[in-house]
Write a structure and sequence with these properties.
single chain, alpha/beta, Nucleotidyltransferase, domain 5, 2 domains, 5-stranded mixed β-sheet, binds 5'-O-[(R)-(carboxyoxy)(hydroxy)phosphoryl]adenosine, binds zinc ion
């Protein structure tokens, strides 16, 4: 059985995992940099890159020890090659190249977004292509028609902020702390989602995309007004995001692409009310709903190893000249969304 070592270092988690080609997770080690970035309320790229350098090799050794293996027994090395903070991406990719070269194993350069996109198949081996994927993370908010490894049609993206970014900024405005998503979810559970009138940008329009910048500004005005409780703002904000995600996904499903399931992935997919709303949407379309377990939604190396397994099985391997890429769209043919100059 083919065994894949996966490396992840594109943002603020350093991780190494060993996964088999039939989807067994033999080991997973992860070091989060949350504490290092907390004083700044966001990820500081230079601090992140240095922390990846220190953490990655020990994590690889620990993962191999957990699985009772040596590097010689690994068949494929898969490393995130982008998109992400370039310093961190380079740490993981160069480490992957060095290991592949030293051990004489093939290298698979994995698009981090493809890691998220294929992770539901690691969690649920019965999930078949093609499926409709809502990919919601700190840097991305996209709807993809997933047809196979390396084969994606991007149906929607954000024209400004990503959904996770909106959660993080709302947490900052509400002084909830860092990282923001889980803290907003926790506060929202105690609040009234109807208390604060907030916009649902682009909902109901013919435009396929997402927008969260106007929502963020409205949250800022609500905070500054001093009229509302923190929990009520959090709950109203979260509901507005849910309404946007559901409406845009419904529109994508209505386009008529054949799909086997509605799938959600990425860090924001850890949010329970968001999962519940998407589950109802899937049920209304008579589609199975698939969401990876929470630990597989946020950044990890098992999804990178798994994407490496899928690409390797499809004959997609890379040579040691493959570059690290700060931007790397999954669907290079997709047109730029209006105003979306900086999003992949
Ligand atoms: O996929 P991910 O771990 O990293 C990126 O590739 O971006 O996603 C991180 C994002 C952050 O913005 C974080 O606030 C958000 O996912 N997130 C959540 C929750 N857990 C993480 N957002 C809403 N509710 C959550 N429970
Ligand atoms: Zn991610």
């Amino acid at each position: 059985m083919t065994i894949i070592l996966g490396l992840e270092s594109s943002c603020d988690e350093t991780a190494a995992a060993l996964v088999t080609a039939d989807g067994r997770i033999l080991a997973h080690r992860l070091a989060t940099q949350e504490e290092a970035h907390r004083p700044y309320g966001g990820v500081v790229p230079e601090i992140a890159a240095r922390a990846h350098v220190e953490a990655l090799t020990p994590l690889v050794e620990a993962a191999l020890a957990d699985a009772g293996m040596t590097l010689d027994q690994v068949d494929v090395i898969a490393a995130t090659a982008g998109p992400g903070l370039i310093g961190g991406v380079m740490v993981g990719l160069v480490t992957g190249k060095a290991l592949a070269h030293a051990a004489g194993k093939p290298l698979v350069a994995v698009n981090h977004l493809e890691g998220h996109a294929l992770s539901p198949r690691l969690a649920d081996p019965s999930l078949r292509f093609p499926y409709m994927l809502l990919l919601v993370s700190g840097g991305h908010c996209q709807i993809l028609h997933v047809r196979g490894p390396g084969d994606y049609a991007r149906l929607a993206t954000t024209i400004d902020d990503a959904a996770g970014e909106a959660f993080d900024k709302t947490a900052k405005l509400l002084d909830l702390g860092y990282p923001g998503g889980p803290l907003v979810e926790k506060a929202a559970a105690q609040g009234n989602a109807k208390a604060v009138p907030l916009p649902r940008p682009l909902v109901g329009t013919n435009e396929p995309h997402f927008s969260f910048a106007g929502l963020k500004s409205a949250v800022m005005r609500a905070v500054q007004s001093g009229q509302y409780a923190t929990e009520d703002i959090a709950a109203s904000f979260q509901q507005a995001v849910i309404d946007c995600l559901v409406d845009r996904t419904r529109r994508a499903l209505a386009q008529g692409d054949s799909v086997t399931a509605l799938v959600v992935a990425g860090g924001v997919a850890a949010n329970q009310p968001i999962r519940a709303a998407l589950e109802s949407l899937a049920a209304a379309h008579n589609l199975p709903f698939v969401a990876p377990p929470l630990w597989l939604c946020t950044d990890n190396a098992a999804m990178i190893a798994w994407a490496g397994a899928e690409r390797h099985a499809a004959g997609l391997v890379d040579d040691l000249t493959v570059p690290a890429r700060p931007r790397w769209p999954l669907d290079p043919a997709a047109e730029k969304a209006r105003g979306a100059g900086v999003k992949a």
